[in-house]
Design goal:
By secondary structure, the protein is mostly helical. It has 2 domains: about 55 residues, no CATH class; about 190 residues, no CATH class. Helices cover about 80% and strands about 0% of the residues. The chain contains 10 helices and no strands. This is Putative ABC transport system permease protein. It is a multi-pass membrane protein.
Length: about 260
Amino acid sequence: MILSMLDVAFAAMLIVIAILISLWLQLGLAKTLLIAAIRTVAQLSLIGLILAWVFARQTWYEVLTILTIMTLIAAFAAKNHISKPYQGLLFDTLLSLSVATFSIALVAMLLILQITPWYTPQYIIPILGLILGNSLTAISLTTGRLIDYLHEQQAQIRMLLALSATPFEACHHAIKGAITAGMMPTINSMMVVGLVSLPGMMTGQILAGADPTQAVRYQIVTMFLICAGSAISCTLSALLVVRRFFDNRQRLLLPN
């Protein structure tokens, strides 16, 4: 089934329903919904043109450039979601996202899907994008919760440090809670996948006429990749935050 621009226009009319609800209940979201809809059309149309060009050429440096830009945008987005940012947060976020997403994406390409070459754009770009989007949310939740704890529990942390605890030991409870919070959206999705919702990759393949069995297998692989990426990114971000908040003499600092 091929969608025409007229079909897309009809679908866009559905946004009017959300806008009318906002106006009726005075939610103040009408302008935001309109801007979001326009951005959705503009951004996806632009990326569609770029991907069509990259797919036709299939050169590694162009694919790597797109992956790098995607990661940078995700890092900025994750940083902007933190209510108490510190100097170096962008670097820490970028490092966590890069290590997690690129390592898991390469494992998927080389060992699971066995795609040659690894930079085949129609595989690596959507796979890394899925991992990146979920890791972004995970890092935002983990980092935000851990930073809040370090600010709010200064006295308790300093007391533990005075009792010869290491920075990791003094923050162990907070690190566990922060990583758990970051992982929870992914875990919740895995708990109800196939029962409450049919994820995007599986739905897209089925609508495109693919074998449902293969669509399910691809979705299972995708969910496991997302889970691993979220776990790695949450852990790295938490450890990097702790490193920023303690000096070489294991004293608690609150960086600006």
